[in-house]
Every structure is written in structure tokens, then in C-alpha cells.
Amino acid sequence: MSNFKDLGLSEPTLQILEKLGFEQPTPIQEKAIPLLLTKDPTDFIGLAQTGTGKTAAFGLPLIELIDEDQPHVQAIVMAPTRELGQQTAQQLESFTSNRKKLNVEVVYGGANIVPQIKALKKPTQIIVATPGRLIDLISRKAVNLKKVEYVILDEADEMLNMGFQEPIDEILSHTLDHRVTWLFSATMPNEIRRIIKQYMVAPEEVAVNTKQQSNKDIAHQYVVTKTANKLPALRRFLDLQPDMRGIMFCRTKRETQQITDELTNLGYGVEALHGDLSQAQRDAAMRRFKSRSMQLLIATDVAARGIDVNDLTHVFNHTLPDQLESYTHRSGRTGRAGKKGVSLAFINPREGRKISHLESKLKVTFEKVEVPSVDDLKASRINNWANLILNTKVDENAEELLQSLQGQLKELSKDELIKRLITTQLDHLMVQSGGNEDLNETQGKPKKQREESNNSGENRYFVNVGTIDGLTKGDLVHFLADIAQVKRKSFGEVILKKNCAYFYIDKQVDSGISKKFEGIEIDGRAIRVNRDDEGNKPKSSGKSKGSPHKGKARRAGQRDFKRSRKRRR
Ligand code: AMP
Asked: Is 337 in the pocket of ligand 1 (CB under 6 A)?
């Protein structure tokens, strides 16, 4: 393997690469950089996808070839999305930070055009643009492409998928006839061949075997679970590894938003990314994701295309995509820059064939894994908790507080105390992680059999309080357990919504808990608890219609309702 020095790059560029910590060229850089530098001018095709280092593969030779003393636009880089354009421009700017006269500007749709027009008044040699916005700027005479010598079409297949064929044709018509075109694409559909035929002369071609790279760094896995249990199954994975950071891909914008809303209501740190959100909302979501203030980005394929976020441990496929390329793009968000990653698919029992199809077409091997059980979560929680205790620095006030507690806890032996502490941890976990049913299914198992195994030991209830009342799930279970006089561990999953909540309770201890809430009132509001089995069982006609008796609120309810809602880690 060569190093950057052998590729023909200049000393200022080598200095920058050292500063950026780029030690060795990636395969596409190793092949493309010397070729583009020595054969200039040449048309070029790079078959590579995001994550392979393709931006540097074209960006480094580009800055060497551009004349920074000339103040006019010499190169345009076209990108399918604003996010990709911004990332590309950022990388180019980092490569040019020691070339003071070389200016890179990025322009994209969905943002105010006026500041972009103003920025372009500065001498600019490289413009990174989304096609639609560049057309707009050309028609307003805010850019002049007459002296453009280099055109880079980045993620060309994606630009064509997004309907940018005409804008690209038009933009190219504004550039020099003898300009060179460098095209990067993950795939080579017929429309790309047309562009190559129409606009390129004897192009040099370099392909990097991205599949082999994926095989090495990405573990492809799947779980089999009912469609309705995909979300509870995802929660188990999130709970098992609270430090994981990933993207979950969904098929539609609606599904993306619904899942995000549900997980947000449950207190998970997630954000949606899809085309129905405004550009400002998408930018904010990306900022939060990049700053690691959330665990999971939930996205459609199009919205997530080209996102350059390193250190993702997981990619989840809520539903597998129909296109093979989409799966490759999705899984390629993890396992980047030599790091290991997991691409996990949730499939229902009838979707087994999709896995074998992907395996045979993409030449990858999928491993079937189990949805973690509640026992797995308990073991991991206690292990993390023990590590936390070991690594906690003792607070200076602890000694004093310990003195005052000693009297209260003196009856307990050390073992007894630890057992109780463990129990409080586990109680909290049960409330967070939902019911304890086995969420795994057998591939192809008959539907009826599968349904029978679902929630068979629990009854589902509705209660007319929610997050609006300042409740956490823990608060709610405390309250319910106190009023119903049932142990907290008898409660299963709690689904906390804004105005209401649903909870599961072990059938064995449920002797009609609705009645126990008759007459309970919080801050003058009557509490209503009704059976709600969501079609699992016929709804009882004798359900309370929500006109409970008035009465005094009991102590437990009042105490717990005051506690504020906490966010999960
Ligand atoms: P790209 O495929 O161009 O989107 O690049 C993916 C990521 O890899 C970017 O964050 C780059 O900064 C980084 N990168 C590209 N080439 C190298 C390299 N040779 N060494 C280390 N990091 C790199």
C-alpha cells in the first residue's frame, strides 16, 4: 500500500493531510489521485460510494490543478442533496485551509438565495452546488460558468434518481466545451451510461470493491419478529446498549415520523429525517445527531443519502428495502473508516426469502440473532450499574448523609442492602423496557400460533393521564401499584402518551383493577382506568364511560404526579 507522498501531491497538501490525520490513502484515492494529476486533462469515472474517501480522491487533485491566482470559477462539484453538498464543501475547505486565495462556496436549495448570491461575489474558484439551485443562480446571472474547466458529478446515480437529469444537461451546456468531467457513482444504471456517452471522451475508469469492504467491517444480522413487535424489539436493542448510536431506515415518511413520535413519547433520544420536514428542521436534526445529543436517527433512504457521520455502531432496517443498492447504501452508513459496525434487519416470519436474496446477490452472509430477553437486559443493566458504582467519585457530602441514614438502614446486612438496590434498578428497567414477553418468532410459523404467543399473560389498560401531567413511566407505575395494591413488578410495558397512557398488567393479579380507581381524583380531575386490549380481545361492553365518582385523591398519586419527566440516557 502506498502513502500520500507517492501519489504526486504537493508539499502544502501533504502538510494538510498530516494535520487532518489522513495517514494512508484509501483504495479509490490510491488509484484516482495519481491518475487525475498526471493525465490531466482527462475525463474520469469513479465507481465508489460515500465512505470510501471519494471526496478526497477528487478534491485533492482538484486543488492541485486549480490556479488559485485566477479569481474566476474553475470547477463545479454537483451534489444531490444539501447535506452532501455541505459535507463535500467542508472537506474541500479543510483541504484548502493553507491556500489563502483559494475559495470554495457551497450553494443549495431550500435556503435563502440572497446570502448565497452575496457570497459568490467573492473571487471563488470552486462551487459546490445542488443542481436546481445552480440553475437558479445561473438564470439570475449570479454565477458565470464560462471558464469552468472541471465538472464533478458526485453521487451521479442519486442525482438522476432525484430527477436532476435536465438541470445537469443545462448546467453542462454553460461550461467550456473542452472541460473535463469526473463522475462518481455507486452504481452504473443506463442513464449514467447516457451521460458518459454524451459528455465524456475516453474516460479513465476506477472501481473500488466496496462490497468486499462491507463484508469485512459490517456484520449483517437479522431478527425475526412480528411486524407489530418490531418497535418493542428495537427498544430492547436500544436498552441493551444505551451507548449505541445509529440510523434506522424506514420505508415511508409517514412510518418514519410515526416511529419517531412513539419512541420520543417513550423517552428515547431519537429524531426523524425525511422529506416532509423543512430544511431548517432537517438541519437541526443533523446537528443534534452529529453532536451526539441523541441515540438514533430515523430516516427514509432519500433523506439519509450521503450523510457523513462517522462512528455509527448500528444501522437498523425497520423494513428491508426492495432495491439491493438501497441495502448497500444503508449498511454502508456503519463500519466506516476501519471501524466495525452492525447492520440489523427486523423481518417478519414471512420475509425470510428477502434475506437469502440479499445474501446471494450481495455476496454477504447474514447472521440470525435473537431479540434480547428481559433477562439479558437485567444482566446488562446490573453490569453497567456495577461499573458506574465502581467508577463513581464519592461526593464530599456523602459521609454526612451516610451518618444520618445509618440509623434508618441499620437493620439491613450488606447483602440485603445490595439486593434491595438491585431490585430498585430492575423495577425501573421493567418499567422502561416494556413487557417481558419473548419477541422472537420462528420463520414461517403460522400466524395463529404466533398471535397466541403474544401478550398471553397480560391485560392491557388505558389510563387518562399522560406526560402532560408531568409523569414518567416510573411515576405512573408507582401510582397504579399503590392505588391497585398490586406489586410493581406485576406491571409490564407502559406506553406513555401526551394525554393518556396504556399499561400491561399480569393477568394473575388483575382482579378488575378499573374498580379500584373509581373515586380517585388528582387535582380535581377524575382518574379513569379502562381495559383496552386493542383487538386482542373483544372490548368489554361494560366498560366505564369515563364518569368516575369524585373522591379525595390518595397520597401516592399526589406525591408521584409532582415528579418531573426525566429523559432516558
Ligand atoms: P467520503 O467517502 O469522501 O465521504 O469520506 C468519508 C470520510 O472518511 C470523511 O469523513 C473523510 O474525512 C474520511 N477520509 C477520507 N479519506 C481518508 C483517509 N485517507 N484517511 C482517513 N480518513 C479519510
From this structure: yes
Domains and their CATH numbers in the chain: 4-208 (3.40.50.300), 213-368 (3.40.50.300), 382-433 (no CATH), 457-568 (3.30.70.330)
Q: Whose CA is nearest to atom 13 of ligand 1?
A: 53
Nearest to 32 by CA among 207, 284, 176: 207
The predicted model scores a pTM of 0.51
53 pocket-lining for ligand 1 (C-beta < 6 Å): yes
Residue 462: other Cβ atoms inside 10 A? 21
Instruction: Using the atom order of ligand 1, give the atom closest to the CA of residue 49.
Output: 2
3-class secondary structure, 216: helix
150 strand-pairing partners: 75, 180
Instruction: Please give the Cα distance from 202 to 151 (Å, whole number).
Output: 16
Full 3-state SS string of 236-300: HHHHHCCCCCEEEECCCHHHHHHHHHHHHHCCCCEEEECCCCCHHHHHHHHHHHHCCCCCEEEEC
Q: Does any ligand 1 atom lie closer than 6 A to the CB of residue 51?
A: yes
Q: In ligand 1, which atom is closest to the CA atom of 22? A: 20
Ligand 1: residue whose CA is nearest its atom 1: 53
Dump pLDDT digits (tens) for 277-323.
Answer: 888 888 888 888 888 778 899 999 877 776 777 778 999 999 998 87
